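User: I'm preparing a small set of examples for a lab meeting where we compare how different chains pack in three dimensions. I only have the primary sequence for this one, and I'd like the structure in token form so I can line it up with the others. Please keep the answer compact; I'll paste it straight into my notes.
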Amino acid sequence: MGVTQSADEVKWPDPPAQPGDLDPMCVYDNALAETINGLYKTELVHRHGPWRNMQDLELATLGWVDWFNNRHLLGPIGNIPPAEAEENFYAQRDVLDMVA
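Assistant: Understood. Below is the structure token output for the 100-residue chain.
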């Protein structure tokens, strides 16, 4: 897998004019991504490595993402998998839309 674009060719977003101009949701999204990345590395990459090749790691990654989304129980959302919490959210929203 090769790099198709150098860092000099990428159109990077302009930095905020003031430090307080950052979108708070962007900061939270980044923190969430870093947390999930750390979980992934701890629970899969380091625990089950070393990997013979990139394809083995990619296949294991697909399995980990499926497990995390569909079978991993998360305490803060009621000890249910994220996919079930998402289904519940949209079902509740649909009911509220019908009532309104």
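A couple of notes for your slides: Residues 24-99 form one domain. The chain has one domain: 24-99.

User: Perfect, thanks.
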